[in-house]
Design goal:
The protein has 242 residues and is an all-alpha fold. The protein has ten helices and no strands. Helix 2 packs parallel to helix 7, helix 3 packs antiparallel against helix 4 and helix 7 crosses helix 10. The radius of gyration is 21 Å and the shape is globular.
Length: 242
């Protein structure tokens, strides 16, 4: 059983690694602004889906909808979540300006609501927990921005790969310095994305950027090396004889 748990523990790092690998494989050395913005929207969509699943689990699976003490939170969280779904949905709906406004308003509302869950019943930690989908989305967003930035300074794919490996190492080395560190005045649910600054039992940050971003950066490093590898010779198809 313990060995099975150990093997199962590799799933989340592997998902992060694959996220970084995929974004690097699909991003050229100097990505265009449109491609970068599209990747950021996709990362935001992954985060929104993660929170939408948590809101559904808290409301339905944990029975919050049956508890009058939870109704105000539900009444505030559902419209905020709907605004974010509208903002990040693919393919997009509505005018770009309307989607941007909905995204900003929905994000601010959700952070304010989710930062005040201490007194809620029905397992409130489920509601705002930073789980794997949110962690993957955040890692995708940061990796996308890093790839765009490195495209301005890295002379080649191999140089970009080296920079990504060094950044991944930097994330690993910096992670212990965040333990027990206050990130005020950041809201709690925003600070969760940076690092787990409290003990695991008291924190909703299961997959913060420090250290989980390191897995995505190593994946992006490999993806960049694969892009830089020499292409194999094309195979010429021979016509089949009758």
């Amino acid at each position: 059983f313990e060995r099975a748990r150990l093997i199962g523990g590799f799933a989340a790092p592997f998902f992060m690694w694959l996220a970084g690998l995929s974004i690097a494989l699909s991003t050229e050395l100097r990505p265009s602004l449109d491609k970068t913005l599209s990747a950021l929207v996709r990362a935001g969509w992954v985060i929104v889906v993660g929170y939408a699943l948590k809101l559904f689990a808290w409301t339905v699976d944990h029975g919050a909808i049956r508890d009058p003490r939870c109704w105000l939170t539900i009444a505030l969280a559902v419209p905020a979540m709907s605004a974010l779904v509208f903002a990040f949905r693919e393919p997009p709906l509505g005018a770009p300006q309307a989607r941007r406004i909905a995204g900003v308003v929905g994000a601010i509302a959700l952070v304010l609501v989710y930062s005040r869950t201490d007194g809620l019943p029905r397992s409130p930690e489920v509601l705002a927990r930073l789980d794997v989908l949110q962690g993957i989305g955040a890692a995708l967003a940061v990796t996308t921005l890093l790839l765009a930035g490195l495209g301005r300074v890295a002379p080649s794919e191999r140089a970009r790969a080296v920079a990504l490996a060094l950044l991944a190492l930097g994330v690993a080395l910096a992670t212990p310095h965040f333990v027990g560190t206050s990130l005020d005045p950041l809201p709690t649910r925003v600070a969760d994305y940076v690092a787990r600054t409290t003990e695991p039992a008291a924190s909703g940050a299961r997959f913060p950027l420090f250290p989980w971003l390191g897995h995505a950066l190593y994946g992006a490093c490999l993806g960049t090396l694969l892009r830089a590898a020499p292409r194999g010779r094309a195979v010429t198809e021979l016509p089949l004889s009758g």
